[in-house]
Structure of Coenzyme A biosynthesis bifunctional protein CoaBC:
Amino acid sequence: IVAFFQPKSLAGKNILVTAGPTFEAIDPVRGITNLSSGKMGFAIARAAREAGGNVTLVAGPVSLPTPRGVTRINVQSAQQMLEATVPQAQLADIFIATAAVADWRPAQASDQKIKKDGSGNTPQMSFTENPDILATVAGSERATSGALFCVGFAAESHDLLAHAQAKRIRKGVPLLVGNIGPATFGADDNALLLVDAATTVEVPRASKLELARHLIAEIARRL
Ligand code: CTP
Ligand code: CA
């Protein structure tokens, strides 16, 4: 009831969020993925909706309920995530890339299940680099002209601050959010590092939903 009377900081805004891992097929029954739970991205979609935004969530394979009032598009691979995200970004005011997109996919997915040959030989696999969804959207005319505000995430195992600062510039985004480890994948809480051109601010450990609400307020303030 209290929330109902609060001012809606994202009223009338279109917010696009990517979340979860991607799944890169090896053959019809196997693939490569990662341990992203999607929880942070889903919490951000929920918080953006609570703030009055029209929210579209492009989700990799996760078993999480869709936040109320959010439009969800399910995808598997990085290529599918790109194809779902790029047209939606044409309509968005804010793009928040939380997905743990697989950096590489098997160069050739087999259309038949790969069988053991009985002699102990193992399959040899080569990889192709996946498209960078955030860099693609952040390089678009809407983003470079300031009509679309892009936010990136970074999960690093070491040197978070230096990597986050470098990544913000490399991706060409005004705001980069670092996950302060350890082991944020799958956890219900986290701590964040917000890196923009001027400042670095730590958001102390809290539930992912509380962090998401804080981040949405920070983004709304910057629009
Ligand atoms: N990202 C993306 N598409 C990719 C790879 C990453 O949209 N193919 C986005 C992520 O959603 C995140 C940001 O880019 O918002 C940073 O992802 P991260 O994996 O930390 O960075 P990379 O550029 O892939 O570099 P590396 O994994 O080598 O650190
Ligand atoms: Ca990566």
About this structure: The radius of gyration is 18 Å. The pocket of calcium ion (ligand 2) is lined by residues 103 (CB under 6 Å). The mean pLDDT is 95.
